[in-house]
Each structure stands twice: as C-alpha cells, then as structure tokens.
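Work package 3, deliverable 3.1, input record:
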Amino acid sequence: MEIAFWILSAITVMGAIMAISLRNVMHCLLSLILFFFGIAGHYFLLHAEFLGAVQILIYIGAVAVLIALATMLTRHITGEEGPREVLGGKWWAGMGTAAIIAGLLWAIIRKDALARLLPTEAANISYTALVGDIGRALVADWVVPLEAMAVLLTAALIGAVVIALEEVIRKR
Amino acid sequence: MDTVYQFLQHAEEVLRGIPLVGGLLARLYHALLGGAPEWVLLAISIAVPILFVVSVFPGIFAYTTLVERKALGRIQNRIGPNRVGRWGLLQPIADGVKLLTKEDIVPRSADKFVHFLAPVAAVIPSVLLFSVVPIGAGLVPVDLNIGLLFAFAISTASVLALFMGGWASRNKFSLLGAMRAVAQVISYEVPMVLAAVAVVMAVGSLSTLAIARAQSGGILNVSHWFVFRPWGFVGFVLFTIGAMAESARTPFDIPEAESEIIAGYHTEYSGFKFALFQLGEYLASIAMAGITVTMFLGGYNGPGSGPGFFGGLISVFWFFSKLGCMIVLTIWIRGTWPRVRVDQLMSFAWKILLPMSIVNIVAVAMWHYITIRPIAWIGTTLWLVLWFVTLNKLAATEKIEKREYRYAS
Amino acid sequence: MSEARYIDELVRQQWLIPFFPLVAAAIQSLLKRPSRKLSATLTIGAMGLSCIFALRAFFATLGGGEHTEVQRAIWNFTWFKFGNTSLDLGLILDPLTAGMAAMVSFVGFWIFVNATGYMDEDENFTRFFCFLSLFAASMLGLVISNNLLLLFMCWELVGLCSYLLIGFWYFKPSAAAAMKKAFITTRIGDVGFFLGILMLYWKTGTLNLYATDGTGALQQAGSLVHLAGWWGLSAASTIAFLLFIGAMGKSAQFPLHVWLPDAMEGPTPVSALIHAATMVAAGVFMVGRMYPLFIAEPGAWVMDFVMWIGCFTAVFSATIAVAQFDIKRVLAYSTCSQLGFMVMALGAGNLAAGQFHLLTHAFFKALLFLGSGCVIIGTHHEQDMRKMGGLRKYMPITFVCYVIGTLALAGVPPFAGFFSKDEVLLATFQRNRLAWGLATFAAFLTAFYMTRQIFMVFFGRWRGGDKEHAHGHEAHEDHGHGHGHHEPHEVSWNMWLPIAVLSLFAIGFGFFSHKFGNYLGAQEGEAVAGKPIVMGLSIAVGLLGIFLGWLVYGRKTMEHASDPDPLAVNLGGLFTVLNRKWYIDEFYEATVFRFTAACAMFFRLFDKLVVDGILHVIVFLALVISQIFRGVGDEFFINGGFDASCESVRLGGKVLAKLQSGRVQNYFRVLSLGAAILLLIYFFT
Amino acid sequence: MNVSLEHYLMLTAFVFAIGLCGALSRKNAIIVLMGIEIMFNAGILNFVAFWHYKYFVSLTAQVFAIFAISIAAAESAVGLALVIAVYRHYRSVDLDEMRSLKG
C-alpha cells in the first residue's frame, strides 16, 4: 500500500508538473495522460475500481484524445512553441497565486484541529459488489441529478458542435 | 489466478484422479512443490496466468498471420506462403527474424522519444486486455468485478499509441492516419460499448466470468448462448462490427488504407517497432474476439464443459475453438469486403450502429420484463426488425439507381 | 356490482383513446414523403378508433344512470420513482370523462372528415393533419387524466397545438400575430393554473385527483376547507380560484378572451375544433373536473366570481357579435358568449347544466363552423358576409344544416340548444336574478345575431361579384386562381356529410337533458321553482330575437356589398363601438402596452441616472483611494477644482477599467486570489 | 508509516496547486484547459479519498465523483470547441491575444 502510494504519487505529481511546464503541447498532453493514469491508479488503490475504469475510459479515452484533436486542428503539426511563447503575461502573478494557495492548503491540512478530525486509517469493510450499488444509487437516490446530467451532456454536445461549426456555416 | 491457486493447493488429489498417468504426475508434483511455503504457491499462481498470456497469445498472433496469408491467398486464388517449412509453417518465425534484424529507421525530424514510445504503448494495452478474458471455466487471469469496463477502458487507451506514432513521425500521411484512427475509434467505441451494455443488463454483472457463467446450461451447454437471443444476435453483430473497426481491420482499415495514405500511422516505422505495432494490433483484435466470444458465443461453454479438471480442459478447448472461428471470420471478411469510405464509415457508426444499439438495449429490457418466452421472442424480434428497417430507410441519403454498364456486357 | 367491476376493467384501457391519434401524428411526422391519402386515412381512422373506444366507455358509464352515486373508476400508476418520492399518473373513467371523450372524438371525427375537403387545395395537407391528430390526442389525454400533472401536460400540449394550428398559414402576418396572441394570452392564465397546481400539491401532497384509498386531492377537498388560504379564502377556494384563472385563459373568459376571435385566422376546421371540441372546452372541463374544490366551501366568493365572469362574458361577447361582418368572427364571439353561459352555470352551482351545455354547444358550434367553412369554400374564400347573400339557392344542403345550427344556438324549443340553455338559465335563476336577467338578454342577442347572419348570408341576392375594387385587394392571395368571381357552388360530399350528421345531433341531443343531469350525478336540488317562467321567457326572447332579426335584415335584404348595415343606421355610434369590440384591443394597446413601454423607459432612465451614477460614485471613491495611496492626497484636496475632479474621474475610470482587461487569465487570477482569501479566513477562524 | 487521509489531502493539494499554476501562467489556451483538468482531477481524488477513509457514509462521494467526471468531460468538450472557434477567428490560441473584451 505505502509503496504503491508513493510510486503512484510520484507519477501523478511528475505528470502534472510536466503537463504544465513542457514546451511542446503534444508532450504536455502525453504527460497529462501519465497524470491521468496516476490518478486512475490511485482510484484502484483506494478500492474505487469502477471510478478507476471510468477515469481511464473518459479522461484518457475521450478527453485526452479530444485535446489531441484540438491541438492538431489549431497548431502547426509539431506543436513546438518558441521560448518566448510559453508563459503568458503576468505569469509571476499566476505562479504566486498558486504558491499562496498551495501554502494555505498545506497549512490548513496541517492545522491541528483538522488533523484531529480526520481518521487516519481506512475502516475495515469489504469493498465488494460496489458497481451494482453505484448503479442502484444512481437510478434511485440520484436520479434527478442523473437526468440533469444527461441534459447537460446533451446541451454540451450540441453546444460544442455549434460553436465549432459556426464559422463554417457562415462561409457558405 | 484464484483457480490456479486452488488447484495448487489440492493439486495432488486432482492429479491422482487422472487415469493412466495420474499417479505419476502426482508424484512428480509432490517432488517438485510438495510442502512448499504459501507464498511460493501464491507467486506461482500469479506467474502462471501472466506467462500463459505472454506466451500463448503472441503464438496465436504469429500463426494468425500465417493463416491470414494462406486464407487471403486462397480467396484470391493464390496458394499463399509455402516455402518455409511444410505448408509454410515456419513462415512466422522467418518473418520474426527478418523484422528483428532489419534496420530501425527513425526520420530525422521525428520526435525521437515519442516515436520510440508509440509501439510500446501499442502492445501494453493489448496484452492487458487478456487479463479479463476467461479462457476456461473459472480460468481468468484476474476476475475483476468491473472486468468488461476495464476491457473497454484499456482498449480506448490503445488509440493513444496510434496517435503518438502518427504524430511523432512528422509525416503527413502518418498524421492523417492518426487522425482517422482517432476519429474512427471514438466513433465506434460508442455503439460497441452500448452493445455490451445490453449483455451487462441481461447478466447483471460486469465481470467477464459471470457473463460466461450466465450462458452455461441449456441444451448441450449451447442453447443459452446469448447469440441465440434476438437481442444477443443483434448485439453480436454490432459488437463484432465495432470491434473490427476498433482494431482497424478491413473493411474498416481507413487509418492505414494503403491506396490512400500509404500505411497510415506506421508509415515511418520499420523493423522491430513495426513488428510491435503489428503485434499490438493483432493482439487487440484477438482479445476483442475473445471478449466477443465471452459475451455472445457462450465463452468457454460448450458440450461437455463444466467445472472440474476435465470439464475445465474441455472448456478451454471450446474457448479456443470459438476464438479460432472468430479469427477466421475476420480474415474472411477482410478477404472479401471492400473498404468503406471515410464519410460512410462515420455515418454508418452514428446513423445505424448507434441507434441500433440503443434500440437493442430497449429490446433487452423488453426481454427482461416479458416473462412469457414466446411473446418475448416475437416482440423483441419485431421491435428490432422494425427499427432496423426504419433506420435503413432513414439513413439512406441517396437512392441507388440501377447501374448501367456501358462497356461490360 | 358487476357493472362497477366492468368499468374498473375499462379504465385500464382508457389510454387507448388518445393513443391512436398520437400514433397517427407520430407516423405522419416521421413519413419521409408526404402522402395526402395516407395521412388523411390515418388521422380519420385513428380518430374513428378512438371514437369507438370512447363510445364504449360512454355506454359503460351510462348504465349507472339509475344509481344514486356517481360511477367512477380510476387507475393510478407510478410514472417514475426517485428515492422515496414517486411521480404518479392516473386515468379516470367517470361520466364527466366519458361524455367528454365521446363528444371530442365524435365531433373531432366529423371535423376531420370535413377538413379533407376544406384543406384539399393546401400544400401542407399532411402537416395539417399531423397537427390535428396531435391536437385531438392531447385533448383526449386531458379528458381522461386523473392527475393534475398529466392534465397539465396535455393542457400545455393543447395550447401548443392550437398555437401551431392557428398559425398554420404562418406566412400571413395576421395568422402569425394571432398564434402568438393565443399562446401568450392563454399562458397568462396558465400561470394561475400552475400556481393552483403547486398550491394543491403543497397542501395535499398529491396530484392525483381521486385515489382508491381516498387520499386523492379532490377527496381531501373537505379537509382543505379548514386550511387557510389567501385573500381571506380557505385553501380549497384559493386553489379553485387559481385554477379558474387558468380556465379563464383557456376558455376565453372576459379579460383573457381576446385571443379567441383572432384564432379564426387558422383554417376553418381548426376553428371548429378549437371552438367546439377541444381548446375552449378544456377550460370548462377542467373546472368541472375540479368542481369538488369549487363547492367545498359554501359561501366563498369564488363561485360568485365565476358566475359573474361567465355572465359578463356572455353578454359582452354577444353584443360584439351583433356588429361583426366576418362570418367566422360572429361565430367566434358567439362561442365566447356561450362559454360565458357554461361558466355561469358552473358558478351558479350546477355542474350538470354547464357540462351539458358544453356538449350540446360542441355539436351545434362545430356544425356552424363547418358550415361557415363550407360557405367559405363555396364562395371561393370569401369571409365577409356583406359580399355573400342568396346562397340558399346555390348551397341548399349547407343552408338547411346551417339553419338547424342557428335554431339550436338560438334556443328554439325542439333543438338541443334550447334544453341546455334552459338548464343554464334555470340554474342561474335559482342563484341570482340579476345574472339571470342579463343572461336572458344575452340569449336574446344570440338569437338576433344568428338570424342576422342567416339573412345576410343565405338570403337576398348574391353580392359576391358586385364590386371589382372589393376584390382588388384580396387578402387571400394564396388561392389566387382565376375563378374568384364565379358563382358560388355546393361543396363536395365530404364537406356536407359531417354537417348533416352533426345537425342530426343538434336536433336530437337536447332530449337527453334530464337524463344527463342524473348521469352526472347532480342532485335535483330544491323544487324547480320558476321553471315555467324561465322556460317561457327563454323561448320568448329566442323568438323575439329571430323576429327582430327578420325585421331588420330579412324584410329588406342588403342589395350591395357596400351598403351600410341596417343596424348601423339605427344604432349609429354604438354600432361602431360594438364593431370595434368595445375597443378592448385598443384598450390593451393603450394600457398594457403603454405601461410596458413606460416601464422600459423608466428603467432605461433609472439605468442611466441611478446605476451609472452609483458607478460614477464608485469610480470617484476608487480614485480618491488611489490618489491617497499615491501620496498626493494634499495636492488633490488643494487643487480640488471642477476641472481637476473631471480629470480625476476619468483617471479613476481608467484604473477601474484595468480590471476589465478582457484577458481570461486575469479574471482567473482574481478568482484564485479570492479563493485564497477565503482559505485565509478559514485558516484563522 | 501508514498512508492516511492526510497524505492524500497533501497530494491533492499539491496537484491542485500545480494545475492552478499551469492554468494561470501558461499562454496556450489548450494548456490552460489541461491545467483546469488537473485541478478537477485533484478535487475528484479528494472525494474518493474521503470516501475510502469513511468520511462519507454510503456512496455519495463515488456518485459525486462520477458526476464531477461527467461535468469535466462536458466542460472540456465545450472548452476545446471554443478554442477551435477562437483559433479560426484569431489564427492563434494565445490567451494574451484574446482581449477584444477589454473594458
């Protein structure tokens, strides 16, 4: 457990750092995929197998591929960026903000009050047959959010198509 | 894994039950592993499935290529490879040696690292796919309770390899091939998963072993196969088409259509990397065939299969026979079908397969709720046929007129 | 009680009634190539099937006439379930539903047959029939529902279909305007309806009207009386009032009646359907359906309100109808007026009378509308009565049927209208003499304007070919085929057959009036005191109206289309007022629209003065702070003249404008900083 | 040392900050989207970790995670469509060049 945790965490953090710091967009994407795999591994480690599979299916199978397609539609093929192009204006402000938030989060987690609240160990319960339970929960207690989600996804699908198609139509 | 472990724990009794050589085998086993500590047994039980997957399926791959070449040859009125060994049996080995010793060419402007990573990334998911394919009664490398979902997740990951290879080669044909592959895989994944959802609904579990088990029993262990249900048949067809497109087999080999984009994403690959690409592609296709067999063709179930040692052996036999049939089917289709056009490919996925798979899900629900079997049969069949005809009518964009052959008689 | 068990069984098949038209509509909407024959066959066939099922249900409930209590069968089922809450739907079969469903499907069937003739030349024949099917399906669904949710869904579907059908010829600006008007006006009423539904759900926790275990919303009406509502009413009456607002919109009662006359912009079969069988009937039917809530609290002003609204509408619309020249417009106002009668009867406390008048009215109003459709087709799309005349000779069948319809509407004894109107008047008489007097006056006007119409259209000489210039600016340019000036002709069989059938019912249906009261389970109440007076007076005013009509219009018919209306000569300015519908539309124009425009103007000014002013103040403050931080506060205060402040306002604006950089990452950064501050607060508390 | 919930919180906090940093400081719109995805994932992992350590009873956290993943997928689809549309207009995915909404 510990070894797996540390290895996966290393993969996750490394993937995340590389994803936002590499120069080539495609390399960033590949690092992001690594990061996604790391997160999926964490899910498996936490006995949330279903979520792990969903993570791979959706993030790696769909989102990453989508980003790849978008990149190829918008950039020249290599995806290289010149040295000056990488960071946006006021990048220092952004990094500073991120650092502040990281520090604050760290402080809050380390804060005694919170630390005492949190359980330290996983309770000993079996995690089997979760998929069925999740399914039942989704269609029983959470059916309204589920329907809302369906509407949202449909709207997003249509919206994405419309946004991406807009100028093509105008040209005709 | 669990089955192997259990077998190891009771190996001696089981082996002694075999006629003729049983006693000998039991004594041999006792000499080798008698009284071995627990962790050894555990390690062996983990290693056996891995070794099996890593050794047997690449072997199947190798001889699949041979069978494919022979069969294609016969379909095209040729003989096929027959020089290396009797009936060309050693041809795969010769091919392997050739590919291993070929020069590995990397284009100068290519992204070296990704170019190297792509073939590896192509093989890994394909091998991982086998971890949830049950090859016999109770014989599955890992019995995940989300087995099917895992398989789909892994199979989508395989598209990344194609994409990486296509992009890293810095070749427009490679890139076109990659983009085609991405678009195709994303499109066909949806109906494929939905076709599988029908089976999952019928079984009530995502575990591949449970799905296979649900199809046992009946007349000769055959009549409960899902392919002999109206929705199962439709699901089988949908899933087979989807799987074929997902692994880019003809007639869906748009990403590597020779006459259009040379060789697609592996245009710039040669030697061992090319072999790895081929390996990955074929392994994925075989694994998909295995999952198809598990989901629709009864998995390991067949006359005589069942629990126990002999039943298990027979079930393994049935599984591989069915797998062989599926492989031959894909080869047959490859040899006889023309390639579809890109736009046809997309409209086929979105206008026929996707609605049809959703209709199929409704059919399963009908099957579930109509308890009187004959009515369920008639009802589901009517429902599916009706929609099939309607969808075809709706999707037909142009009327195909009767052709007039000006030069042919 | 084998019979009750039979209807218990039957109620489970009630869904079939709207099912057939719905399927017909679905098939037609999916057809790739429009086929006139197919869609007409589908629509009419589906309606015929519905009619058979509705009649079966009707006869099943009819047997209960001798029983004292109302025969009612219900079937509730769960639509879907989430967590512990479930949404129920339900079907009902009781005399109210059965009679209504039978009427709607029967009248609808004949209207559809007529429509095949009327729409024969239209390009969008299949679209029309698709909408018609949907319209009928939603109305039938409304009728059979035992659940306010289902009822509301069908209610809205009816509204949608009427919108689509009124604006069927959407290329005509008047039709487009009319469709919007109908939709928006009824929507105003729907707000009330929806509030009523919400309140009902809030108070009772269910939307089922009846339930087998007695927990239905209407079965709880008795307990609702003891809960407090709004406006000094009990909860039951409050809900009833809100629901009635919805009915007012749908059934075109006084303040919300404006859409109905405009709705005749649609094709005439649609007008017939809207005015007779479906749309407007929905409102009255809904009130009838929810009647236990209305009568739950004795002495509440809701019932009086309902009665007076109905009474006023009846008189008001009848006066307008007197002065119209468009053949369909006269009928439209007549519908308004008759709806007023129905609502009045409901308000007077007699459910059976209202519903019975609804049914009889459906028959003869459908007859009249279809007849007017025949006239319009026969005269080649002429709708102005001044340009008709003498059609008696050209269109004998239509003439006979039309006269029957007129007599029925006017309330001449042997015809259906007499009996139902008599019931209504009697009910009102028992409740309030003044309302009864007004209603009798309205009945008189009804007879008068219908006689006027008959004489203008069917007697005298044919004035259609009179004036060239009258046809020069022909409004209906879509049928500009060359025979605009030809003689009128009799219509084809598929157009006159429906009106002939309907006229049979207009003659004979009234004899069931007594039975119908029992059928709906109405208590006979106190002895029918004053019945002879009421009956005699109503016959008298009917005949008087016809006589006056003959006096004014029949004795000397109009000679030319441009002649003034004889009544206009006598009444003068009042006639113009009536002709312009009491200037109601103009009144709305002057008040509601002006008010909206004024509001818009006000808010624009508000925006300009107050909001911008506040912004300027903020800018000013920001400037002050920035100046202070720059350490030049002294300078600012010392040189605080007018120019400097102007300059500094501009500067401050610049400072603030920096925030609005248009760069997404800037916003994101600010957002993150905000999150950081929140975290900081969390950390220190 | 056993892996505790705190470890996971630390990890996710760190990853969240990394994603935020990327989203705030990079110029390329696609990478900004990637940063947002990283932040999303960190948040979801938090939920699952809380679930694992029994901070939530029942499956609420898992269901929530599923919804969050779906929303993230929809978000990225729309976001990328926007990027493509913007690219068609400006011929660039550079966020610094998109400032026509400047006040």
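The first strand of chain C starts at residue 73 and ends at 82.
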